[in-house]
């Protein structure tokens, strides 16, 4: 599926001109709901850090940069999805101030 690249951003972390991490976000308009005004939101589509550079603050700096960048826009919130059982990622995002807002469920066919 092709996405609107004008509504997406990719941020990279590099060390000596070598990419060691990235964060990809997508911007979207949330329609008006129950009388509320429409608003712009962001979703973290991916964040990754090269294995040799994990647990050194790279992901934290990437996410902080993303959030600082979004604060200069009309985006009012940022969200993401974490797979059940991925306690490391969930802990990381909670440390960054994210809270559980919903629970997604699925059933294999």
Describe the structure.
This protein has 109 residues and is of the alpha+beta class. The protein has one domain: Gcn5-related N-acetyltransferase (GNAT) (Aminopeptidase, 3-Layer(aba) Sandwich). It has 2 helices and 4 strands, in the order βββαβα. The longest helix has 14 residues. The protein starts with 7 loop residues before the first strand and ends in a 14-residue tail after the last helix. InterPro entries: Acyl_CoA_acyltransferase (IPR016181), GNAT_dom (IPR000182), YpeA/RimI_acetyltransf (IPR050680). Pfam families: Acetyltransf_1. This is GCN5-related N-acetyltransferase.
Give the helix level as a range of percent.
Answer: 10-25%
Return the string of H and E elements: EEEHEH
Q: Which structural class matches the secondary elements? A: alpha+beta
Name the poorly predicted regions: none
**Into which percentage range does the β-strand content fall?**
25-35%
Strand order of the largest sheet: 1-2-3-4
Report the C-alpha radius of gyration, rounded: 15 Å
Q: Which CATH class applies here?
A: Alpha Beta
What's the average pLDDT?
A: 89
CATH architecture heading? 3-Layer(aba) Sandwich
The count of DSSP E runs of length 2 or more, i.e. the number of strands, is 4
The major beta sheet can be summarized as:
4 strands, mixed
Question: What is the subunit arrangement here?
Answer: single chain
User: Could you say what the CATH topology is called?
Assistant: Aminopeptidase
Counting structural domains, the number is 1
Question: What would you give as the CATH superfamily?
Answer: Gcn5-related N-acetyltransferase (GNAT)
Shape: globular
